[in-house]
Amino acid sequence: MSSATASPSATVTPAGRGAKTPWSKRVIILAVAAAVILVSAAAILWIRFWPFGQTSVVQDLEQASDSRVQVQSFHATYFPHPGCTLSGLTFIHGADTAHPLIAIEKLTVEGSYLSMLARHVSRITAEGLHIFVPSQASQPFHTQRSTISIGEIVANGATLEFAGHDPDKSPLRFDIHEATLRDIGWKGALTYRVRVHNPEPPGEVTASGKFGVWNQDNPAQTAVSGKYRFEHADLSVFHGIAGMLSSVGKFDGTLGHIDISGSTDTPDFKVTLGGHPVQLVADFSAYVDAMHGDTFLKRVDAHFGKTRVVASGSVAGTAQGKGKTALIDLSSDNGRIEDMVGLFVKASRAPMSGAVTMHARVEIPPGDRPFLKKISLRGNFGIGGGEFSQPSTQQDVDKLSAGARGEKNAPDPETALTDLAGQVVLANGVANFADLSFGIPGAHARMYGTYNLINYKIDLHGHLRVETKISNTESGAKALLLKMMDPIFKKRKKGEILPVRISGDYNHPSFGLDLDDKKTQQPGAPSHPAASKTVPTQGSQSNHQ
Questions:
Q1: How far is CA 191 from the centre of its chain?
Q2: Which domain holds residue 161?
Q3: pLDDT at 478
């Protein structure tokens, strides 16, 4: 029994150990094989779907910019953050290989392992970024929607250049000191903040707000909003004016129509011809077509001295496509002539004072000509209660008025001009006056002629209707000459008509009779540039410092 019992036991145990050994080896082999398969699959997936490989990164950049992207060197990073670094990038759009659309010295891409599957990049830093925008695109852009979202893009120290139509001129350059974009993707607007040096007028601009989502079918409908601050803007770049402007405001709309409102302050604004600084402040509302770079002024309320000027108009491209032309409508219903004229004269005081009403259209074309040479103006004006600031000039007017009334002495207080009005056309620095009329006690004048804003030359002709005998306006030999002229006018029932002229320059104006100007003896006679002999009135030579 014992032997029979022991025998099976002896044969079963070795047999059992022999059966287990092959199965454990098989399990181990299967486990190792599975691990190899998993590792191989992971490696394949890693290579195929790893978002920071050179091929995938370059492909994403090409799709986003619709350009051919070339890279000098590529380096992948895995710790502490997955990502990559690319050096010497160029983005070539179209056939112009000499001027890449974008050039980047170094591009650093940083991600996280948790956000890789969501195709989210934490941060992209562009160093040495340069963007060149040609005057005319060689071919349109066809960007593709990307499934990648980016937490932040930083591009400090970048430059942006816009090529002009003249190849001999340097491109318009913007130096971007700071630029940060956040929440970049196709699901919502991105947030931006930039600090940039504006080239014209040169100054510092800080802006922040929201942009997008980019409208591929109609880029002009892409939304944009934000606020800005413009500081230390040097207006002297415009040749003819000067001053340091600052401005703050806000904007909202689309790239095709951005509504903007704000205020400006120029504490030392001046026209360089006159050189007298004034504080110029303005509130404005406008809209901008960012697709074409055009600005349309809805309303500008400007104040300087005791004068308020309201403006509207545009600064937009011309049909020829060369630069921007400013077309501005100006009006002032209760300004001061001393404020307006004082901007253009070198004397410490304006030549006259009084309330003024003015309506005009101003055109400033593009180009490098001096401001007073290229600006043109057409309008009308009226001045009430005008008085000349220089005593000698005012005395001439007072004596003329006294003579017109048959008085020997000038009135006291000083005579004021009344109803001074006219039409003016300014071109090439010369103001041409038509139907210039004014009144003084005892006389009324109508004149025409020119005033040169550059060399101050005056050339005005016309007629003066007086209330007494012409000979009463002078004494001595001049009176004798004028008495001889009385028979010419004795049939005038409403008073004699005196042909007069104002000549000389601003510093030394000359008031006198225009004896050879027969046409001005008839009221309403047409204006004409007649050459004339003149007889200066008493005290006509006035020295102005």
A1: 24
A2: 58-137+149-289
A3: 46
